[in-house]
């Protein structure tokens, strides 16, 4: 029961991070929130995605017994980005049609897929983190 509760908490954290990363993805150096520098895009939220999503997968792999359980933070993160990005508040599409969205997805998915692969490798060897 404790393992399931931990996995639910990790999934909630993944969803909250996905929403925050999505909402702040359109930041620009336009002088409004950040300093003015030719209105350049500033996708700083990719950095937390690169760091936190694989960490959540690694944390979930401590409590999960199966690959879907270990991958649940990644799946929740991707699902949250897609749902909120395509069906945002008021019907707005929040996913940008440019390189920043691709960078966000790649930054969150690729390192997390490596973490899921590490879990699968440990399972294949018969090892366990428990």
TrEMBL record:
Organism in which the protein naturally occurs: Saccharothrix syringae (Nocardiopsis syringae)
Superkingdom classification of source: Bacteria
Keyword vocabulary terms for this entry: Membrane, Transmembrane, Transmembrane helix
TM region positions: 42-62, 74-96, 102-121
Protein name: Uncharacterized protein
């Amino acid at each position: 029961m404790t393992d399931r509760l931990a996995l639910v908490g990790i999934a909630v954290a993944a969803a909250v991070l996905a929403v925050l990363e999505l909402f702040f993805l359109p930041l620009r150096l336009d002088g409004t929130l950040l300093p003015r520098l030719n209105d350049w895009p500033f996708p700083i939220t990719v950095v937390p995605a690169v760091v936190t999503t694989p960490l959540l997968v690694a944390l979930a792999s401590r409590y999960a017994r199966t690959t879907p359980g270990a991958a649940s933070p990644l799946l929740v993160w991707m699902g949250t980005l897609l749902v909120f990005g395509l069906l945002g508040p008021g019907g707005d599409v929040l996913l940008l049609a440019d390189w920043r969205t691709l960078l966000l997805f790649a930054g969150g998915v690729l390192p997390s897929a490596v973490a899921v692969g590490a879990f699968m490798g440990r399972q294949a060897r018969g090892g366990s983190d428990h």
